[in-house]
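PROTEIN FOLDING TASK:
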Amino acid sequence: MDNNENLKKKVLLVGNPNVGKSTIFNWLCNKKQKTGNYAGVTVASHSGQYEYGGETVEVIDLPGSYSIYPSSEDEAIFSKYLVEERAKYEGVIYVADALNLRRSLLLFQQIRDFGIPAIMVINQIDEAEKRDIKINVDHLAEILKVKVFATNAKKNIGLDGIKKAVKNAEFKSTEEISFEVPLEQKEIVNRIAEQTQEPNQYSVWTLLAANNYLGKLNNINEILKQEDVNCHVPKRLQVQETIRRYQNIDNVLSKTIIEKPAFKEMLTEKLDKVLVHKFWGYIFFFFILLLVFQCVFFLAEYPMSWIEDAFAWLQTSVGETIPPGPINSLITTGIIPGIGGILVFAPQIGIMLYFLYLLEDSGYMARVVFLMDKFLRPFGLNGKSIVPLVSGVACAIPAIMSTRNIENTKERLITILATPFMTCAARIPVYSILITLVIPDKTLFGVKYQALALMGMYVLGFVFALLAALVSKYFIKSKTKSFLVMDLPTYKMPLWGYNVKLMLEKVWGFITGAGKVIFAVSVVLWVLSYFGPKQEPDQFVATEVSLQDSYLGKLGHFIEPAIRPLGYDWKMGIGLLSSFAAREVFVGTMSTLYSLDEEAPEGKLLDKMHQDTYPNGDKVFTLATGISLLMFYALAMQCFTTIAVVYRETGSWKLTATQATVMCVLAYFVSLITYQILK
């Protein structure tokens, strides 16, 4: 560790889910971490740093948790770091929710009873004031013996004092324990404290109540007598502690809530009468999705055309500037068409992500979790499963990681197996080009056929995700039942400009990530197309051969018999193979192949694909072929990174290999049946 690292002051950012921790983290560190309004968004600790008063402060944003006793993997990350890494940080910035201070104080008391120094930030104070909830912050600070800030993090109100408090080391700890160990556990707690040399009785108590997550618990079975094991059930001890703590918390709040008003119905309650209604809630959700898909095609039309024209101009300009030869051919027929073929779909991806961020930021996604719980139960999932499923619309990789928020192991594994079926952003370029190619540009009641087709693909992905979950639940066994317990946040006005920044960053990440793969694939494709088997005895290899005679053409024709029953020609076969690196590579590959093919018609990629024919005059891309390809990309596991993440999260090569194999075999046979029916 270098000297600069040693000089850093490290603090933790802690609190319940959905209290504004990520917003405060972003403000402190000027780091654009995405904020979501449902539990489970932060599934691992994030760190950032800032400079203030001549010192560097590292802030670690831990996953949200309701209690020191974790029930899911992301809460386990929180508990283990908080307890086991105590020597590595100065103290805790504890973020409480002004609208639910009672709930927030439960975890805060547990942290304080560990002797961990803290300062408290009561966030969303503006929402409390709207409901006439008045908190005497000074009196609360006096009772809790801690520094307290009242803030509205979204508008950067009340945050300035936090950095100063950290600089001045105003973290307060206490040796007084607010929780008194029950009499029936006193003897065993004292015995363990004596044998482990642990002076903090609450720390010892958690070893009994935490089951198998905290600190020194690995050694506790050596200390416990058999009668201790039989008599003390961890869950019961946790409930016992919670009841006692809330009695103490209610006493604190009675002295600090200046006025506790009768229920005042606000906009949130009025909207929820419709948005979480057992019938109208689903109708509204369907309408929102339809609106998003309409915008994906309608709003992206012009920027897509501009990008396409720009790359056509670039291709022509570079072709005229660089002397004829291999370098000219590589750049103009390989790299530029390949990268341009994928960049043209960035507007559609951006629009999709922007709407998703708005739904998260507003608080609506939490309602979707609540709404879908009852619907998902028969499939072996619960409401929290909708978070990774919906997140899968952006990318399956963070979506699979977000399953750590699901407490039940069986439901978590089922969700991991189902999530890759959801339509991710990488599929959008493939869907878009195929739908535009084979679906008429007409409208039904003002809605484009193409928008309906795109929505149909998303619905199809969701249906197959549910079917995968339904099948999986009979193979993955679990004896425990799960229940969905969650708080619905208030509706908030989305941060429109901030979400634009998030969207642009995500799209740029997509462009740079996909661009690297496309660049590599384009170079490989060009090399395979430029060279071919030797045609003269004195040649090692033939150069500047026709596409049909190149190594690429030979490879394509070799695999064509396996894919011809699906309606695909050899070019599509090459596209399918290359897209196992990443799904979106298909479009870049097709763009490169049609650019390399001297016999291909002139024009933009869509025009070339539309006019492409077999030697007998039949069109290559028909409705049957297009729908068959859509089916293949909807169902196949075509992303090596996703496969790696599934293995990392499940720890099972058998489960990972089974998932990948089943998805690809399913994609092949569904595509085969689709083509044979429609041709």
